[in-house]
Amino acid sequence: MKLRRDIKLYIEAELRDYHQTKQDLLEAKHDIILEGYTIDGSGIRGTNISRPTEAKTVQLITNKRIRRMQQVVDAIDKVLRMLPDEKYRLIELRYWQEKQGLNDEGIAQELNCDRRTVYRWVDGIMLAIAIEMGECHKGATIVGA
C-alpha cells in the first residue's frame, strides 16, 4: 500500500516541522491561559468574569488551530513511540538533522542498511502517521504515486 504523493509530502512537512509545531502549540495554549478576561474576542474586558477558568477551557477546546496542532503532534508522537531505535534514528537523520546534509545513501550507510530499506522504512512510517492523522484509514486502497 502506497500513499498518494501529496499526502506523503504533507506528512513529511509536518514531520520536519514537528518540533516547531510542539513549541507553537505550547505557546498558543499558554497565550490563552494568560489572556485576560476577554470572552468575546473584542479586546474589551467583559463584565462576565465569574467563570474565567471555564471560558479559557472552552477556548482551549474549541480553538481550531490548537486542535489541529494537537492532532498532528499526538499522531506523530504515537508513531514515534512505537518505532525501534534504528527507525527513530532514520527520522532524526532525514528530517531533523539537516546540518549533517546526508542524502538517502548517506543515511543508509549511517544506519548500516540498503537505500531501498530506507525507502521502505520511510514509506511505512509515513503511512502509519497518515493513518493516525486520519489522512487515510487502515483498510483504504491508497493510490500509488
List keywords for this structure.
mainly alpha; 7 helices; elongated
Task: Give the total of domains.
Answer: 1
Largest sheet: none
- How many helices? The count is 7
Beta fraction? under 5%
Tell me how many strands there are: 0
Order of helices and strands: HHHHHHH
Nearest-integer average pLDDT: 81
- Rounded to an integer in angstroms, the radius of gyration calculated over CA atoms is 20 Å
Please give the alpha-carbon distance between the first and last residues: 11 Å
Derived from helix and strand composition plus strand pairing, the structural class reads mainly alpha
Helix content: 55-70%
Uncertain spans, ≥5 residues at pLDDT below 50?
140-145
Shape: elongated
Secondary structure blueprint with pairings:
Blueprint: H1 5-16, H2 18-34, H3 52-62, H4 64-82, H5 85-96, H6 104-110, H7 115-133
Helix pairs in contact: 1-7, 2-4, 4-7, 6-7
Question: How would you describe this protein?
Answer:
It is a single chain. The chain is an all-alpha fold and 145 residues long. The protein has one domain (5-43, 50-133). 67% of the residues lie in helices and 0% in strands. It has 7 helices and no strands. The protein has helices spanning 5-16, 18-34, 52-62, 64-82, 85-96, 104-110, 115-133. Helix 1 (5-16) packs across helix 7 (115-133) and helix 6 (104-110) packs across helix 7. The longest helix has 19 residues, at 64-82. It is elongated. It starts with a helix and ends in a 12-residue tail after the last helix. Residues 140-145 have low confidence and may be disordered.
